């Protein structure tokens, strides 16, 4: 189906914004490979949707549940790959804040995300925030 990968990623990002965990779980392949950049508590390669959800849970814990996807600036597709520019914000009770753009590249197969490569526009800021 034409634009299937873009449709899947758009639905995934909408579910992220709405906190729709059932849709997120349905769109992430059980063996998804997720590469989160940096040198901090959430960095590294996750090899399942369970590990991805654990990482996201840690992000919400560290940000006192303030992490939010505020903007989806651009989405482009090339076959099974979809890239997008995303704006994230978060804050901590100690007053530390983060506002960062990420470029995410998703690979979609059979209606599910099988791979995610995350690129940060300000990795130093993310490393400082996610301690």
UniProtKB/TrEMBL annotation:
<protein>
    <recommendedName>
        <fullName>SnoaL-like domain-containing protein</fullName>
    </recommendedName>
</protein>
<dbReference type="Pfam" id="PF12680">
    <property type="entry name" value="SnoaL_2"/>
</dbReference>
<feature type="domain" description="SnoaL-like">
    <location>
        <begin position="9"/>
        <end position="115"/>
    </location>
</feature>
<dbReference type="InterPro" id="IPR037401">
    <property type="entry name" value="SnoaL-like"/>
</dbReference>
<dbReference type="InterPro" id="IPR032710">
    <property type="entry name" value="NTF2-like_dom_sf"/>
</dbReference>
């Amino acid at each position: 189906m034409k634009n299937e990968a873009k449709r899947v990623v758009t639905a995934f990002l909408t579910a992220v914004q709405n906190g729709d965990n059932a849709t997120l779980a349905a769109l992430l392949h059980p063996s998804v490979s997720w590469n989160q950049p940096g040198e901090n508590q959430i960095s590294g390669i996750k090899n399942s949707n369970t590990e991805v959800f654990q990482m996201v849970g840690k992000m919400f814990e560290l940000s006192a549940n303030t992490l939010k996807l505020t903007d989806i600036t651009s989405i482009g597709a090339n076959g099974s790959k979809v890239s997008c520019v995303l704006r994230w914000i978060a804050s901590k009770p100690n007053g530390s804040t983060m506002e960062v753009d990420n470029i995410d590249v998703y690979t979609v197969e059979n209606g599910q995300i099988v791979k995610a490569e995350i690129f940060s526009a300000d990795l130093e800021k993310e490393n400082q925030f996610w301690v």
